[in-house]
Amino acid sequence: MLRNDQLDQWDRENFFHPSTHLAQHARGEAHSRIIETGSGVHIEDRDGNRLLDAFAGLYCVNVGYGRQEIAEAIAEQARKLAYYHAYVGHGTEASITLSKMILDRAPDNMSKVYFGLGGSDANETNIKLVWYYNNILGRPEKKKIISRWRGYHGSGLMTGSLTGLELFHKKFDLPFDNVLHTEAPYYFRRPDLAMSEADFVSHCVAELEAMIEREGADTIAAFIGEPAMGTGGLVPPPKGYWQAIQPVLKKHDILLIADEVVTGFGRLGSMFGSEHYGIEADIITIAKGLTSAYAPLSGSIVSNKVWDVLMKGTDETGPIGHGWTYSAHPIGAAAAIANLKLVDELNLVENAGVVGSHFTSAMRDALGDHPNVGEIRGEGLLMAVEFVEDRETRRFFDPSKKIGPTIAGELLKNGVIARAMPQGDIIGFAPPLCLTGDEAQQIVDAMTKSVESVLGR
Length: 457
Ligand code: PMP
Description:
Layout lengths: L3 H11 L7 H5 L8 E5 L2 E4 L4 E4 L2 H4 L8 H14 L11 H13 L4 E7 L2 H18 L7 E5 L8 H6 L16 E4 L14 H19 L4 E6 L15 H11 L3 E5 L13 H5 L5 E4 L11 E6 H14 L12 H16 L2 H20 L5 E7 L2 E6 L15 H11 L2 E2 L1 E2 L5 E4 L7 H19 L2
Parallel strand pairs: 3-13, 5-6, 5-7, 7-8, 8-9
Antiparallel strand pairs: 1-2, 2-3, 4-10, 9-10, 11-12, 12-15, 14-15
Helix pairs in contact: 4-12, 5-12, 6-11, 8-9, 13-15, 14-15
Bound molecules: 4'-deoxy-4'-aminopyridoxal-5'-phosphate (PMP).
InterPro entries: Aminotrans_3, Aminotrans_3_PPA_site, PyrdxlP-dep_Trfase, PyrdxlP-dep_Trfase_major, PyrdxlP-dep_Trfase_small
GO molecular function: pyridoxal phosphate binding; taurine-pyruvate aminotransferase activity
Protein name: Taurine--pyruvate aminotransferase
């Protein structure tokens, strides 16, 4: 086995890490962390630290680490047939079976699933599909996509544009022109503290309507949103948000893309976030929880309404000019089948709801009255604690104080991995869906200790 200092050196010399301060990393100013093994909700690093991963990797290892059933399924598929493509009607038993399993779980109006590798490429597919859709319907001007500030939809060219976080645009010449951003459904950060939740929903709707009016409905193809926001702050929507937004989209014939990369397959305590909030999407994006990240695989589930137009398109113009070499990769499909079986057998969707509500209420009991805790919000096993300098006026800390990252660093010392979310002092939790009540309490205890050591009581 290679020595840690050797790996550390090779890492700095050769490895271009995503979402990393490249200069600091190359200069060795931050300790690089090398993860060695995982089992259940725990991972172990090369320094021998055993950590409770309360963010499931990047909220993707939903069934937990070390599941032998999935490893076996991958090995068996690799031995039998590691690869064949899915172009011009080709398939494998794994990819066909998985398509059926996904459609069996998806909302009733869904028709087919197109497979990709990750959330970003699935959303790139979705954008191309809605453009194609409008071209086939003879509406070539109807192309703009509305996303929300703080929405996260990937880091490709169009998906990075849709992502409503400044870091993903700065110095990349993004966002592109045909992307629009509207108000995030983030009640804690409402523009006026006096607004009730219902007033805030009306405000979000009014902003959307004004945008449609300004741009012209005949120029807008789709609206994309995560049922509950992820990277932008782990924010469940205010009550009634989706019920108020959807009629506006319907009225203007704007397709709805539900980006369920995080919420799909149980995170909120329902199989899909769409089901959880009563969202009737035209396209659903899936990734992460589809395979619990045992292999890369994503999907775009398209509704009957969209599918009918796509079929018409190929009758008019020939085969659809969109495909990846690795679409429906058999190893990813085998991993997903084994993963979805485990989700069922272990009742993980239900567990996410039950343990999730215990987790959130235990966190509120422990930290709800801390003077710097502005809000503790959660749905299923997606939870966030947001910090403020002053609770009464909701004054935020100066970002240079790095309160969020400091608390996350302290949590790590206390044996728990959580994520300091990128915009604000927000500590995010999205543990594997197999989390137990005891493990939830361990996270709460570690968080309490960490918060008190950084901010006092
Ligand atoms: N959509 C959402 C909601 C996501 O959270 C993410 C990733 N965190 C993506 C899309 C992009 O997925 P990927 O990183 O697999 O490209």
